[in-house]
Known about the structure:
With 287 residues, this protein is mostly beta strands. It has one helix at 118-121, and strands spanning 2-4, 10-15, 21-25, 32-36, 43-48, 52-57, 64-68, 73-77, 83-87, 98-103, 109-113, 122-123, 126-127, 138-143, 150-157, 160-165, 171-175, 180-184, 196-200, 212-218, 224-229, 233-237, 243-248, 254-260, 266-271, 276-281. The protein has a domain at 7-206: Neuraminidase (6 Propeller), CATH 2.120.10. The protein is 1% helix and 48% strand.
Amino acid sequence: MVFLEDLEHPESALILNDGSIIISEAGKERGCLIRVSASGKKRHIFARLDRPGGLLQNPYDGSIWVTETRQSSVLRLNSDGSLAERFSGDSDTPLLWPNGMTLGPDGAIYLTDSGIRVTDLITAGRANPDIWEGPMQGKLFRLDPISKQLDCLDDGFRFASGIAFAPDGKLYISESVTGNIYRYPFTDRLEVASRERFVTVTDAAGPCRVAGPDGITFDTEGNLYVAMFGQGHVATVTANGDIQRTIVTRGSCPMDVIFGGKDNNRLYITEYQRGRVEMVEVSASIR
């Protein structure tokens, strides 16, 4: 079902403790974060930004973090939506297209950088599919919210996008150009040298040249849900790497997926093309 519509290029969603939802809108004329009631009936602008992308709430202090994709930075916002801090990397390893974020077991923020700039891919409001074939230097970063240290942990991705920790503690990253999902072990720290390809989820043929896995999330059983941008569905992957089923979306460009609801069995899907947030009840038999 459609939970919310009349959005301009929604990228990501974040469910807060009170059940309300923050959604990033990346439209050129309406770049902002909106806050929506749990019912979806009330909404207001939480923060006016440029082109916001990934979202995260730090449970330790309640701060909201957002990737500013066009301004190549990560922002920490106060509870009223005002800017508290901005992080852009350094001259040796600048942020280019910071994308997804997740909170690690160590309390640090792990984020993907897609490896090109927004203006390389999107011009005059349209994607240039030729860029999809060109060079990219996607990266994985770790940002310590206390020390403010931003470190590049791994690189060489072809449009790194979604990122999430599984219930068993492993870190997963989606790579949009290849369709690969990678994972890393995590003990006391991330074992970067042990990166392995977990599964490839992109269909051989799809309706768009710019297509591939975007936002990802896990259910409590360790099943992975992957928003398949340009392919019109959410892929479900078991812990063994089997693509078990797909959830068809009404638009062809799902961007992000998160679980919420009273029993945490509602999958919210941001859909970029039609400007909607769709919602699917995921049964226990699937989860």
